[in-house]
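Much of what follows relies on a compact textual record of a protein's fold. A record is reproduced here so that you can trace the correspondence yourselves:

. . .
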Amino acid sequence: MKTIRICHLYGNLMNTYGDNGNLLMLQHYAKEAGYDIVTTMISLNDDFSADDYDLVFFGGGQDYEQKVVSQDLPRIRDEIAKYIEGDGVMLTICGGFQLLGQYYINAAGEKLEGMKILSHHTERQINSRFIGDIEIYDEINNKTYYGFENHNGVTHLGDDLKPLGRVVSGNGNNGVDKTEGVRYKNTFGSYFHGPLLVRNEWLAKHIIDLVIQNK
C-alpha cells in the first residue's frame, strides 16, 4: 500500500479550539483514498526536511505558545520554504497561518517574527476580537465554506497572495477587505476554528487530492 507521510508541525503546542480535528479529517480521507498514513510530530529542536513529507499541518496556538514556536522556527525556516516553493501541500490555521508571514503583533503588543515565507503580516486589535460564524466563497473552486472565527489578529495579505475565500458574512482576515485566509501554490491558511475541515468536507478531499497528485 502506498503511504502518505504527514508532518504535524508543533502539534503539542499549536492546537487551540480543536484544530487537530483537521488532521483527523485529512487522515480519514487519505485512508479512504487507499493510502496508509504515517504521521510525525515535529516540535522544538526537531529537524524538518522538505523531502520527508507529503502533507504538513500547522495549527493555531495561544500567544505564549506562539511566542515559543516563533523563537524555534528560524532553525527550520529554509526547509519549510523549500517545501512550500516545491508545491508541497500545507494547511495552516490561525497562529500557523500568521507565522508563515512577515510578523505578528500579539495581544500584549509584542512583535513575533514570522518565517517571512509569505508576504502577509498581522497586527492586533485593542480590546476587541473577531468572534462568530463566518461564510466565505472560494472563487477559484466555486465553493462556499462555513465556519467559526475567533481571533485578535488582523492580517493583511501581500499583493502576490490570494485569499482562501471572499467573505460573505463575518470578518475574515481584517474586517475590511473581505478576504479570509490565504492560498499560495499548494499552501492554505485560514482563521476558521472548530475545525475548518469538519464542516467543509470538499476542501479536505481537495487537499488530499493535491497530495496524491504530487506522489
Remarks:
- Helices lie at 20-32, 63-72, 77-85, 95-99, 196-199, 201-214.
- The first strand starts at residue 3 and ends at 9.
